[in-house]
# Entry
Amino acid sequence: MTQQFSPTSDGLARAAEMLRAGKLVAFPTETVYGLGADARNDQAVAAIFGAKQRPSFNPLIVHVSSVDAAKELVVWSEQADALAEAYWPGPLTLVLPLREGAGVSRLVTAGLDTLAVRMPAAPIARDLLSQAAIPVAAPSANRSGQISPTRATHVLDSLDGRIDGLVMGGACDVGLESTILGLTGRPTLLRPGGITREALAHVLGGGVAERHATEGITAPGQIRSHYAPNAKVRLNAVDFVEGEARLGFGATDCDLNLSEAENLTEAAANLFEYLHRLDATGAERIAVSPIPHLGLGVAINDRLSRAAADR
Ligand code: TXA
Ligand code: MG
# Structure
């Protein structure tokens, strides 16, 4: 049985208690719903992988309620300071050297000597994390390989009965996972997201490298078919074919439109929800309009190309 909590102070107190007791609790962040567990508790973290049926070589992001809490886990830096000042709380994950004695489960880092940390902005997530007062490891709250959840109902569709609790918040504002920036060497964009490479470079006063697909580490997208719906996905569809579910962008005749006004922020927020909905129609194929490859469009195209990858 998955216990559903309302996002009231009482509900959040009980959800926080559940996390502290080593249970799995899904909760909304501004990006997507996360499946949280005490990052110091091996069994709790292992249960995440079990519930998600996730390949265990993928390291997890640890969520904290303050910069000070992050500093207890990683070796902080001036660059981290500048970025946290600009973007925390918010959809930016920083990968930094793991601090000795941080007490984080090896399963969280998948054996790496680095750790991904993030301070989410959504009020529900912030309240929950500060009440729990522990570092919370949380991947997106979906079964591995499925579309990321941006509503409580998505979490239930994917994980009901497999997790202990779910905080019933509303829709996620951003709708795309956080930007991941590696800061263990030259600043490197490990996953594009709501905060663009240009914006990060601006704060750092220097370039941010793009990661190359040939490099080793397992970031979210290293598994190419990561965000896969059941339907096949056809990208850059200018014309739609009879029988396809049509996911549009801009002024076009379609089943669901990511943003008629060609607003990329709106499109990002709608992306996973609309993929879910079109997939639920049972269509064999989802055709997607071209999305401009700039700003948030880079992250949207990244997710779409994974959804379209061969499996
Ligand atoms: O917006 C988000 O980031 C959401 C919400 C719940 O916060 N979380 C999320 O987690 O997207 P997940 O597990 O789906 O993706 C985390 C990705 C992993 O695929 C992993 O490869 C990368 O972060 N990652 C984690 N630790 C890392 C590390 N030490 N070095 C490089 N990449 C890391
Ligand atoms: Mg995920």
